[in-house]
Amino acid sequence: MSDHDHIIEPHTRTLHTRREFMRTSMLGAAAAWTLPVFLQKTFLTLDAMAADSAIQSATGKDGTILVVLQLAGGNDGLNTVVPWADDAYYKARPVIGIKSDAVLKVNDYMGLNPKLAGLKSLYDEGHLSILQGVGYPNPNRSHFRSTEIWQTGSDADRNESYGWLGKYFDSCCKGADPTVGVAIGNELPQSFTSPHPTGVSFSRPEQYRWMNNDRTGDTDALFRELNSPEQSADTNAGGSIGMIGGAKQKTGGSTLDFLQRTALDAQMSSDKVLEIARKYKASVDYPHSPLADSLNLVARMIAGGLATRVYYVSQGGYDTHTNEAPTHERLMGELNDALAAFAKDLQAQGNFQRVMLMTFSEFGRRVTQNASNGTDHGAAAPMFVMGGAVKAGVFGKYPSLTELNAGDLIYNVDFRSVYATVLEKWLRAPSKQVLGKAFPLLPII
Amino acid sequence: MLTPLPIRQWDMTKAAHLLNRAGFGGSPEQIKAFCELGLDGAVKQVLNAPDDAEQFPKPAWAAPRNMMEMRQQLQALPQEERREKFQMMQKEERGNGIDLIAWWLDRMTRSPNPFREKMTLFWHGHFATSVQKVKQPFLMWKQNETLRASAFGNFGAMVKEMSRDPAMLIWLDTRESKKEHPNENFARELMELFTLGIGNYSEDDIQQAARAFTGYKMHPVDQTFRFAPMQHDEGEKKFFGKTGNFNGDDIIDMILEKPQCARFIAKKIWEFYGYESPKPAIVDALANSFRAQKYEIKPLMNEIFRSAEFYSADAIRTQVKSPVQWVVQTVKILETELPRGQVVINVLRQLGQIPFAPPSVKGWDGGKAWITTSTLLLRYNLANFALGRGPINMQRVRNVAANKNMNRPGFDVENHTPIDFEKIAPKELRSDSKRLVAYLAFRLFQSPLGPRESESFIGFVEQHKDNLDDETIRDLLHLMMSTPQYQLT
């Protein structure tokens, strides 16, 4: 590492955020030895990016972007990608089965829910791929547990505490902006958890800031001052902050250093998010739904060049045990309209080629409708992958509707193959390092 | 044994440190009173504080659910009604789950024995079990009471209790484990997370141990542990190189014999109360005492709380407050009340720690993992809320319909008892900026300020010296709490 100490020429491409700008100017202004350790480290990391492909930059302007869309509650895959040519489907679902003449036919066996017309167009234009029968061995039918399995990428019989995206950030995006992962919502999803968690969450940009009651106009400046790392030579020698922050600990950088760095990150990223939210508005009309609002916000952040590699959004309400048809129809409509607007927006921005959106749900639903004209928790289900660079098509085999496991479809594509593909081919990250083992890649990108 | 702290070195900073770490902190008066007990008296109080069971009776809903009867009742209903009834029951249990969390937070905040609550919180994070899978708040409450009763008791006995604990039987699938198909979930986590740590056993050991824990069931009527001999594997098992017809308790005894077990637990306790990554010599010393005391927890805590190391610069104000610590300590510091159950749970969810709902069986990572840019900003904004002001993001507070059990003490945003600013910032101090800031700093940080912080806050007071009304004091407190330093304890 010491070989690089004198190298202060970071990637010009990566210097888009104010934080990075600030780091550069600080580095330019001061000799490297006066910098807090973490800043030096960050520079070395930025520098190392050229050499080590496992460490990635999030530039916000030209890198690929993944959008993960969670359909929470267990989406009914059979009424999403409908096996219209299969008698077994109508036999199992005499009431809630979707009539074959209404299905948007994709091939001579299956087609899309009638509400998914926008997705059908995207498919026809070559921007949507449909993965059939995605799941995992020994499926769990608890929302909590199966969501955890999808979020962590763990085997069903193992407990894994960190999220697959968190592990990706941790192993591949060290030194990146906290906005490397952005979740639209009030808390970070479980998939973002890691030993060194990063990522930002907000449902409205104006929440992601320090909200004061600055009646006199001077607290904001003081706040900024108090939430920056101290830069005097004294501090680096480990003296003055000892009183309040505790002594310098042995293991490089005290807890206070870490908190100060995070506080600076928070200020910088908050400024950036607010600035983008102010400057960039959607280029197309979005429908009115929580999901559309989320995707609208994501599109604005993308347009503004937020240094993000992964966005996370979700749509809830899929737990359709009772009287499923009207609820599911509404959800499909909202999903379709939001995704169609999002795709159009990205196309208008010229960013569709570098954005890929992937849907998932914790499980599909039982093949046979229940006595309340709904469906109970099931197993394998389809996933959609959408984007300008996606290889459109139908992948995986539609699971048999008659050879079942305890009434449920049997998966034929492990969801971690999808994760691995997205990691390797889209985010250019070593999937084995993130997922703990190798999974076969799919030809979807 | 760790070197004890010389008694004459006991002072306000150390008293505050013990109160913060062994409990959830306190007001300046409470710290002063604690300090006056002296080191010996203070540690004795931590370990022998009065029982608070009368003050915190069990929640009204905390009773066994007769599963057999409930199932029969449900089955007797027509399909549609059955589903409705079931959903109603689920809704009520969700409400009970919220009440349970509020019940515990209230106990942490108001108990005359917060030390037992803190230790219970440690064990909850250790034997991390979530209501999200267990589903029955009563069983979670029962586990909590078991952990509370054993908190300063014997670790070996506690592991055995947990192996039979109904919530644990559900959480790690032990009740599904039969001799034909032993389920390894409990056996694996028993060794990996509860006693030894990863790498100190083999996959074979897990499989053999899983066989020993077969036949552990839950009684469907009174929901207590029941051993089902027919489902228990009576065969010979080979475990840690020994062979015999071992049962679950035998397995636990053999685990406890390993010095690694004492090391693993002593280190985890030290990291929770003291600081992370202690030197091996500290862990060794604690582990030796722990084993010599046959895994009695109280003597171990006594040694920790009297040690010079616990009061060293490596320990004092080096720990990131957990979300629960942040909330409870803030309430104590500002001498205010807890927010209403749903509100505080919403807050804790966003901060990343809901009691009774740890993210996984590994519990909470804690330390630096509590802090992201989002949670840090949220803490800063919550400080404003705690000071009696918005804005706070109140949307998505779960709308659990009016539940008859939801009447725990607590305030709404609109109608909570105002903070006594005259007490927190006495009028006679307001003309002396340095004294005022030092006075407030002790309440908020329990230690002197660094020069930058000190100058900033004094500057703020000077600037407003003509109009130091309560609103301005509130601004100042919010600023002081919107700092990295306030996140430390």
What features would you describe in this structure?
The complex is a heterodimer of chains A (445) and B (489). The longest helix of chain A is centred in the C-terminal third of the chain and has 26 residues, at 324-349. Chain A is α/β, with parallel strands linked by helices and 445 residues long. In chain A, strands 1, 5, 6, 7, 8, 9, 10, 11 and 12 form a 9-stranded mixed sheet that branches. Chain A has helices spanning 18-29, 37-48, 87-92, 117-124, 143-152, 164-172, 219-226, 233-237, 242-245, 255-279, 290-303, 324-349, 415-426, 431-435, and strands spanning 65-71, 81-82, 104-105, 111-112, 128-135, 181-184, 200-202, 310-315, 355-360, 381-387, 393-395, 413-414. Chain A has 14 helices and 12 strands. Chain A is globular, with a radius of gyration of 24 Å. Chain B has 489 residues and is mostly helical. Among the domains of chain B are: 7-22 and 24-48 and 258-311, no CATH class; 423-487, no CATH class. Helices cover 54% and strands 2% of the residues of chain B. Chain B contains 23 helices and 4 strands. Chain B has helices at residues 12-22, 28-36, 38-48, 67-76, 79-110, 114-126, 131-134, 137-150, 155-164, 166-171, 185-195, 203-212, 248-256, 259-273, 280-292, 297-306, 323-333, 341-351, 373-386, 421-424, 433-445, 451-463, 470-481; strands at residues 216-218, 225-227, 237-239, 242-244. In chain B, the strands form 2 sheets. Chain B has a two-stranded antiparallel sheet. The longest helix of chain B is centred in the first third of the chain and has 32 residues, at 79-110. The two termini of chain B are 26 Å apart. The relative contact order of chain B is 0.12. The model of chain B is unreliable at 391-415 (pLDDT under 50).
